[in-house]
């Protein structure tokens, strides 16, 4: 049986972790002056930022595409997709010029749906060599899988 292979972009992952880390540090630093305040509502609202930042760091860190013998697991920011090889017809890269149409790697499914892989987008931090490598690996597996 094949070992699972996990694809991700270290530079993109590091940027996301640093961004949420700054939010986390800001949340903790913002709580310190509130510790002596008598207003519990402000304290509760301020303390809710830290768990959201920790959750964001965890989700950005997990962002990846894992190729297994049975299929592909796409871990995006908000949702994971577990797909069998029989469901996947191919993988392609698309670049969209508008901010409201994000580009990147898309898995094309048998029923006409598409799954966007957030770990391989079309942003300035994305490594196109890594993107081409994951596309070749996915498409080679789709072609050889009966």
TrEMBL record:
Superkingdom is Bacteria
Parts of the chain that traverse the membrane:
12-35, 41-58
Pfam families to which the protein is assigned, alphabetical: bPH_6
Sequence ranges assigned to domain Low molecular weight protein antigen 6 PH in this UniProt record = 64-129
Q: Which UniProt key words apply to this protein?
A: Membrane, Transmembrane, Transmembrane helix
Protein name, per record: PH domain-containing protein
């Amino acid at each position: 049986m094949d070992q699972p292979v996990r694809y991700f972009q270290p530079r993109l992952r590091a940027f996301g972790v640093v961004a949420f880390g700054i939010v986390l540090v800001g949340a903790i630093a913002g709580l310190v002056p509130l510790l002596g305040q008598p207003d519990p509502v402000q304290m509760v609202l301020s303390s809710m930022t830290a768990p959201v930042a920790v959750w964001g760091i965890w989700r950005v860190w997990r962002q990846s595409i894992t190729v297994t013998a049975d299929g592909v697991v796409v871990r995006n920011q908000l949702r994971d997709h577990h797909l069998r090889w029989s469901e996947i017809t191919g993988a392609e890269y698309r670049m969209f010029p508008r901010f409201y149409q994000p580009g990147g790697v898309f898995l094309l499914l048998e029923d006409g749906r598409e799954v966007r892989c957030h770990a391989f987008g079309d942003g300035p931090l994305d490594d196109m060599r890594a993107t081409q490598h994951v596309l070749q690996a996915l498409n080679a597996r789709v072609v050889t899988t009966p």
